[in-house]
Amino acid sequence: MKRLSIVASLLFLGVTLFGTNAFASQKIKVAGIYTQPIQQKWDACLHKALQKAADEGKIEYVYSEKVSNTDYIRVLREYSEKGVNLIVGEAFGISRDVRKVAKDYPKVAYLMGDTFGPADPNLSVFDNYIHEPCYLMGMIAGKMTRTNKIGMVGGYPIGEVNRLFHAFMAGAKSINPAVEFKVSFIGAWYDPPKAKEFAYAQVESGVDILYAERGGVVDAAREKGILAFGNVNDMNKEENGTDIVVASALWNMDSAINEAIALVKQGKFTAIDYKEWTMMGKGGASLSSFYEFEDKIPADIKIKVIEAQEAIKNGSLVIKINDEEPKSTF
To answer: How many CB atoms lie within 10 A of CB 159?
Structure first.
């Protein structure tokens, strides 16, 4: 009886104390909390990674979508109270309040999109660092433009968007110093009709290539008969971009999510920045296939892109991260 009591006590400690390997051989409970519908590509990237982990039997997964910032903390606390082991979501705009929740639930692991860094002991952060493949796309765009005018349509001028635009512009300039840019922000994360209208206006100004940071831009490119480059998801295949989208800068949260899950299961989850897991070196970012454009992209630029890609991965080429708001140059 005494031995059974000791075993029971150990099991109880293993299940309840954060910092053990209690979950090493079992599923953990994970919740996703999204401010946008899961069709919106930023949140879709998180959702797909978590759903994949669930399909592989690693986790039990539940989620809430379209949660406004004013309601976010309530939902965050509800999941924290329900015995969820890991919560993945967004702290943009409500970072201070999210940190308060994390302190109140030290046994819960939090992996949140945030620009203010991790908070001990249990709040890790991530952001969108796909600027490296954006640079590679810019190289191609700089070569393929005929008017030397490229349009860029984004959501808001915040760091995670600004760095992508700057990298794209730098890549284009590295190949074609004469290229100019028209930069627009629609003031929304998910408003395809509005993004489409902004893209129309850019085409009227003379751009012959569009960088589609937001949904709706590819539709405008198709209707205007010009080329586009995609963002976050594979817009050639997922947003009807055949013969329109040359390539997309892909964001893959699988490596970051799997790392967090493994650490929670091992009882080793700590407050860190998952930045490197969202970059090319660890598979968090990549350049898509060229599909039907494989033979349409000039051979010389394809060679330069391959060389630059390898240089990025081995660290000999570092793409600058510039979070300042980009401006139009014409």
So the answer is: 17
